Amino acid sequence: MEFIVGDAKEKQRLNQIVTKKTADVSEDDLRFIANRIRKNIVEMIFQANSGHPGGPLGLADIYAYLYFKILKLEGTQRDRLLISNGHVCAVRYASMAVRGQIEESELKTFRRLGSRLQGHPSTKYLPEVENSSGSLGQGLANASGLALGLRFQKNPARVFLGMSDGECQEGMTWEAAMAAAHNKLTNIHPFLDFNNIQIDGKVENVMGVEPLDKKFESFGWKVRVADGHDFGAIESAFTWSLQDEGAPKMILFKTTLGKGVSFMEHNPDWHGTPPAQKDRDAALEELSA
Ligand SMILES: Cc1ncc(C[n+]2csc(CCOP(=O)(O)OP(=O)(O)O)c2C)c(N)n1
């Protein structure tokens, strides 16, 4: 496997982890995986000179957990992972590469014409992403429709969905929330990137969405708020979400935009700005420390 960033020692460690049984993947392994995902995110966006580093870096711990502890990726009963906040797809592609679903070298094609790894995910180019997205606010409706269809077909596949706080400003999210509760969808497992940042600044200043927990509860959902950088909290949140309690469940993951790269953390400027050479060097140095 050719790496786009990282050394032979890392390659050896990754090879060991990838061959482990899911139950044997440790918290230390997950930290290593999340770090590799972060390095790939920085490098691929730098090489493309275009993309969104902030959200993906903030989601790396959750995606490391999903790809190495939860997701079954093969067959008709495979888990479906959809992304509603399509602009964060670098974290998805980087996770797929670290898991071995695609080659890490393919990350170099991110955002290029004709690449499978478009700047917003497209099933036309890469069917593994399960849904095309980029227009915010559609994911919960996509996932709910898919979950209903699977239920009709008596297919036990689980539908995971990445969402964001910024896109809760979209009305369609709330129509879907109403429909999911009405249909008692317990085979959808949405998790929301609750970093209080969007394209133009803090969500609370652009158009506040709080209290998100109470809003989803009032639509008939069960809600849990969890630390999106604590693997213990991530594990117990997904374990909770996967228990059928007769109503859809929403995980609100508190995350830090830009997590792991100190000068990007909490800074909305890094929502959609690629790192320049000096930023890329500083970021990779920090992630390699
Ligand atoms: C329907 C729609 N309106 C506007 C946009 C432009 N847009 C792209 S990202 C973004 C901010 C979304 O907020 P969030 O997902 O919370 O951002 P992040 O946490 O990743 O910084 C906006 C408004 C869009 N992609 N789709």
Concise overview:
By secondary structure, the chain is α/β, with parallel strands linked by helices.
Overview of the molecule:
By secondary structure, this protein is of the alpha/beta class. Helices cover 42% and strands 11% of the residues. It is built from ten helices and seven strands. The protein has helices spanning 8-18, 27-48, 54-70, 89-99, 139-152, 171-182, 203-207, 212-218, 231-241, 277-288; strands spanning 80-83, 159-164, 188-194, 197-198, 201-202, 222-227, 249-254. It has a five-stranded parallel sheet with strand order 1-2-3-7-6, sandwiched between helices. Strands 4-5 form a two-stranded antiparallel sheet. The radius of gyration is 18 Å and the shape is globular. The two termini are 23 Å apart. The mean pLDDT is 97. The chain binds thiamine diphosphate. The site of thiamine diphosphate (TPP) has 20 residues, from helix 3 and strand 4. Residues 54-55, 85, 87-88, 134-137, 164-167, 193, 195, 197-199, 257, 271 line the site of thiamine diphosphate.
Which key features would you list for this structure?
289 residues, Rossmann fold, alpha/beta, two-stranded antiparallel ribbon, globular
Q: How does the SSE layout of this entry go?
A:
Elements: H1 8-18, H2 27-48, H3 54-70, E1 80-83, H4 89-99, H5 139-152, E2 159-164, H6 171-182, E3 188-194, E4 197-198, E5 201-202, H7 203-207, H8 212-218, E6 222-227, H9 231-241, E7 249-254, H10 277-288
Parallel strand pairs: 1-2, 2-3, 3-7, 6-7
Antiparallel strand pairs: 4-5
Helix pairs in contact: 2-3, 2-4, 2-10, 3-4, 5-6
Thiamine diphosphate binds at residues 54-55, 85, 87-88, 134-137, 164-167, 193, 195, 197-199, 257, 271.
